[in-house]
Specification:
Blueprint lengths: L4 H17 L2 H15 L3 H10 L3 E4 L2 E4 L16 H13 L5 H6 L1 H10 L7 H9 L2 H8 L1
Length: 142
């Protein structure tokens, strides 16, 4: 019977506290048992058990590692729908250049396409397009 991820994390918390205080012989036996229970390879299991309950200093605050919790980091999108649409138009007009060349030549493309009426962008969108990195241009252009 295979354990679910939540069951593995609970088992890790329980066994990890004992594992950190155990001697070498006992750690080896515990590691064998933990590997058999979870299906982890021995090296990964040793790392997981060793890192359980570790303390990290973050400024004045001490954080304790808890494998049962997952930190969700949300970053708001930098580019709105108008900026996301423009690189596709520019990319197709540039005969499908690579992202580095597309980002490098973004200014003349924006100016030319705007002058000929193929691209309609405001000043804020224009600034974001001109500051766009090659990676972002590659992702948004396709």
């Amino acid at each position: 019977m295979e354990l679910t991820m939540q069951e593995r994390k609970k088992l890790t918390m329980v066994k990890g506290q004992v594992y950190l205080k155990a001697g070498k012989a006992k750690k080896s036996a515990m590691l064998d048992d933990f590997c058999e229970s979870t299906g982890y390879c021995r090296r990964y299991a040793a790392r997981v058990l060793h890192q359980t309950g570790q303390q990290y200093l973050l400024g004045d605050c001490i954080l304790v590692a808890d494998p049962t919790k997952h930190i969700h980091r949300h970053r708001p999108p930098l580019y709105g729908p108008a900026v996301q649409q423009a690189p596709t138009t520019i990319w197709s007009a540039s005969t499908f250049l690579g992202p580095v060349r597309l980002a490098g030549g973004m200014a003349p493309f924006v100016e030319d396409l705007t002058a000929h009426g193929h691209l309609h962008v405001d000043d804020e969108t224009r600034q974001l397009l001109l500051q766009m990195s090659p990676v972002s241009a590659g992702i948004l252009g396709r």
